[in-house]
């Protein structure tokens, strides 16, 4: 069994470990959806899967068999103290919580959470603490809200959250609640979720090309969704915490106080009545959050607008991830000096 508990020191010449810890939560309808979901994965995928399906005490212990009959991966109920290995599926047994520690599974009759044991929140939260950015949280069909708080914790620690399309889910309540509460990365149908997870597990991530001492929560203000998503992925690879991504200046002003970002990457020409420099000025006036501009324009009018604000940096599109990283590090270092003096 391949151990998944070693985290190598980042080396810019070598790929970092991919997102190889996949936690899956489902409730009503999951007994049907889980076998279908796992039927899409090839044998030997370099990821470990952990499943919580709400089961009442005394429920028949057949879920591992139901999933196993459709899965190319070995499936079994988890045992307390079992080592974490890739290429297999661990299922939480009835009336016990399954949580993760670094390198091993913990199965205990610990207290119920959100009226449930096994609890989705318990699994998701422990995975986020143990494995951080390596975690992908998958929320499938279900009722009530067990899984919402755990999804938030995964997102907060840099993991990815994927929810089943509520239009496809047997019970759309749980995926809908997660979407309403957490900045979900992807909403997709079962087959497409499996394809995403396979890509996350097999696509290597590179260490940041430039070193830097400052880590921060970054808000992205960009009205081109594709650019925003690409930038978010680059920032995650550079070990920044993307706390929000918004499309307009008005949304940036509203989100700045709520998300407590440490620095903002701001496009200048935005959708809506408020451009990036106007939004940056308001945010600085109210909250003193540094802004680094990211724009395709370098004309005299744009530069004059930037000079009228307390700009901490400026990066031209098309950007390189290293350029953004350097600009953020310089902005954070400047802000750190200002706060000291």
From TrEMBL:
Record InterPro entries: CheB_C, CheY-like_superfamily, Sig_transdc_resp-reg_Me-estase, Sig_transdc_resp-reg_receiver
Active-site residues, as the UniProt record annotates them: 27, 54, 146
Record's GO cellular component terms: cytoplasm
Keyword Nucleus in annotation: no
Residue positions, PTM 4-aspartylphosphate: 267
UniProt domain CheB-type methylesterase: residue ranges: 15-204
Domain called Response regulatory: residue spans: 217-332
Coiled-coil ranges per UniProt: none
Highest taxon in the source lineage: Bacteria
Top-level EC class: hydrolase
Biological processes annotated in GO: chemotaxis
UniProt keyword list: Chemotaxis, Cytoplasm, Hydrolase, Phosphoprotein
Pfam families: CheB_methylest, Response_reg
Entry-linked SMART domains: REC
Protein name: protein-glutamate methylesterase
Protein source organism: Caballeronia calidae
């Amino acid at each position: 069994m391949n151990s998944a508990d070693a985290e190598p020191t980042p080396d810019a010449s070598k790929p970092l470990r991919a997102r190889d810890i996949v936690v899956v939560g489902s409730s009503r309808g999951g007994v049907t959806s889980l076998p279908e979901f796992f039927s899409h994965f090839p044998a030997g995928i370099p990821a470990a899967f952990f499943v919580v399906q709400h089961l009442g005490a005394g429920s028949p212990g057949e879920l591992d068999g139901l999933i196993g009959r459709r899965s190319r991966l070995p499936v079994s109920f988890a045992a307390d103290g079992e080592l974490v290995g890739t290429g297999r599926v661990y299922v939480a047994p009835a009336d016990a919580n399954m949580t993760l520690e670094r390198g091993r599974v913990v199965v205990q009759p610990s207290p119920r959470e959100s009226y449930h044991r096994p609890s989705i929140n318990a699994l998701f939260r422990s995975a986020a603490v143990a494995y951080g950015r390596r975690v992908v949280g998958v929320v499938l069909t279900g009722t009530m809200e067990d899984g919402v708080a755990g999804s938030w914790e995964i997102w907060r620690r840099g993991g990815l959250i994927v929810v089943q399309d509520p239009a496809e889910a047997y019970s759309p309540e749980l995926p809908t609640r997660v979407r309403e509460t957490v900045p979900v990365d992807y909403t997709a149908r079962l087959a497409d979720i499996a394809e995403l997870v396979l890509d996350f597990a097999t696509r290597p991530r590179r260490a940041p090309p430039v070193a830097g001492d400052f880590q921060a929560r970054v808000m992205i203000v960009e009205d081109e969704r594709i650019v925003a998503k690409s930038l978010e992925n680059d920032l995650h690879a550079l070990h920044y915490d993307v706390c929000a991504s918004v499309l307009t200046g008005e949304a940036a002003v509203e989100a700045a106080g709520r998300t407590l970002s440490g620095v903002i990457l701001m496009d200048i020409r935005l959708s809506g009545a408020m451009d990036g420099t106007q939004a940056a000025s308001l945010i600085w006036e109210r909250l003193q959050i540094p802004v680094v501009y990211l724009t395709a324009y370098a004309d005299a009018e744009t530069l004059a607008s930037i000079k009228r604000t307390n700009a901490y940096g400026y990066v031209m599109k098309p950007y390189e991830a290293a350029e953004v990283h350097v600009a953020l590090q310089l902005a954070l270092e400047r802000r750190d000096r200002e706060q000291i003096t």
